[in-house]
Design a protein that fits this description.
Blueprint lengths: L2 H4 L9 H8 L2 H19 L18 H6 L26 E4 L2 E4 L41 H4 L5 H14 L2 E3 L9 H4 L11 H12 L12 E3 L4 H6 L4 H19 L2 H5 L4 E5 L4 H4 L4 H6 L1 E4 L15 E2 L20 E7 L4 H10 L5 E5 L6 H6 L1 E7 L8 H7 L3 E5 L18 E2 L8 H8 L1 H14 L14 H13 L5
Parallel strand pairs: 3-4, 4-5, 5-6, 6-7, 8-9, 8-10, 10-11, 11-12
Antiparallel strand pairs: 1-2
Helix pairs in contact: 6-19
The structure holds 2-acetamido-2-deoxy-beta-D-glucopyranose (NAG) (6 copies).
Length: 490
Amino acid sequence: MAASRLSLNFPSRRPLSDSFRHFLVIPTILAFLTTIFIFHYISSTSTLVIHLHNNHHRLHVNPKEVVTKPLRPIPNKPIIQISLPKRTRSSVIEIHISNHSIQLGNGSEGTTLKSSIIGSIEPKSPPEPESPPSPVPSNPTTTTTTDDDDVFHNRETFFENYNEMNKSFKIFVYPTPKSHPFANVLLPVSSDPGGNYASESFFKKSLAKSHFLTTNPSDADFFFLPFSIATMRHDRRIGVGGLQNFVRDYVVNVSKEYPYWNRSGGADHFYVACHSIGKIAMDKAVEVRVNAVQVVCSSNYFVSGYVAHKDVSLPQIWPRQGDPPKVEPSKRKRLAFFAGAINSPARIQLVEVWKNDSDIFAHHGRLKTPYATELLRSKYCLHAKGYEVNTARIGDALYYGCVPVILADYYDLPFTDILNWKSFSVVVATVDIPLLKNILNEVGFDEYLRLQKNVLKVRRHFQWHGVSAEYDAMMLFTWFCMSCGSEEVL
Ligand SMILES: *[C@@H]1O[C@H](CO)[C@@H](O)[C@H](O)[C@H]1NC(C)=O
Ligand SMILES: *[C@@H]1O[C@H](CO)[C@@H](O)[C@H](O)[C@H]1NC(C)=O
Ligand SMILES: *[C@@H]1O[C@H](CO)[C@@H](O)[C@H](O)[C@H]1NC(C)=O
Ligand SMILES: *[C@@H]1O[C@H](CO)[C@@H](O)[C@H](O)[C@H]1NC(C)=O
Ligand SMILES: *[C@@H]1O[C@H](CO)[C@@H](O)[C@H](O)[C@H]1NC(C)=O
Ligand SMILES: *[C@@H]1O[C@H](CO)[C@@H](O)[C@H](O)[C@H]1NC(C)=O
């Protein structure tokens, strides 16, 4: 981003450390609001609209408004709307509250939530008479409004918050002596992180070098629990069977040695995990799951364990060096590309429907050609969920300048509060896989060019840099975290 933009003077707000105290009450308030919200939903309407306000970036619900009239979009400032179809007898959607999380349905693939989650939803019930016409078009692919051109929902607010965070946000990492028997699990790795779950190690390395660190815990806004799930998994002394005890013991140790865990019940603490096994690792330390901020790759808001708006979605990134080759959009002859293991209903359907197609290449297993070549010669690259909603394919697609198509229902997409996914991706519900070719063809070439241009703009937010570079994934996360602590949240 141009340096000049950053030197603009933004009005300063109250000090961050003050506002972070408000963070501690958020779980309670959220639970309360969630309750009202759900009661309201069940009693009076069949349409659930979660509205994120541009200026606040967080779930923004005014309790008075909720009980007196239906939620409706604030004119011209929609970011995300989630509308559920009418509840019918055959619907599998059910809503209940479980440890501050909302579960919709039973988690099986392809439930009745038909519309895609971001952008392309048209409410099934008629709009409220008093509400203005929905500013979100039913077909996002034909949108050409100014807002959608920007990869940020609100650029000005983003940079204002970013600059404030950069000045004052502080993180304390619980220290580990090099002689600790589990130093390998608790300290950042010295080698270059590799593989599918590299994001976890990159995060720790970046954090260790970042200017956000403080050695004085009384200055800290947030506290980092430095255990690495990926390393524990491969440590023979721990393994998958020992994860839960290790996490429980570590948290007990930290809560005895320091006053900070007990002070907040863990609400100003966070950990990072890219492997989905992280989900069960907290089973014997329930407070970590319920109160702490979980920075995880498997950010599926349909399963308990991940709490949207508390937890943070970390992009799964395959590490790559240097700049990718450039391929002009017009030279990308193939419409869409997918390759991978067929381990989910979405992928089974994808390959079943499109295996013989000449425009959409959906391949089971290993390719004969290099993976990069296929990403470079395709306009759209399909991110179809596997065992989990997350895969490294979004990062792969962006790196090679290919527009990602998200086929992963209930994926809480990384940085979705900051980045306007509609501007650089196409989100398609998995039930619409048979319509994929129509959907992509309808986008049109001009719109494709716009998406592709934005892909090149956002891709640096989906890369890890040895030392935390300006605006890389680590920075955006901390920005994100800062905004959860802001008093503007509620
Ligand atoms: C909710 O939290 C309680 C303890 O606070 C725990 O016993 C229970 O198993 C949790 N439920 C779920 C679904 O995680
Ligand atoms: C979830 O819903 C699907 C579709 O209605 C059903 O086939 C499946 O048995 C349900 N699973 C559970 C665990 O209830
Ligand atoms: C953030 O802070 C660091 C260290 O104080 C500084 O080097 C960097 O230029 C700042 N970045 C921005 C965008 O203000
Ligand atoms: C917790 O502390 C005990 C006693 O000092 C130690 O033996 C154990 O290794 C620690 N566990 C973890 C996970 O740090
Ligand atoms: C925090 O609470 C736990 C459990 O109640 C207790 O064992 C521990 O000593 C407390 N820590 C501090 C620093 O007081
Ligand atoms: C794909 O081609 C095979 C062999 O020609 C054929 O048996 C199959 O029915 C085709 N599948 C689809 C979905 O068109």
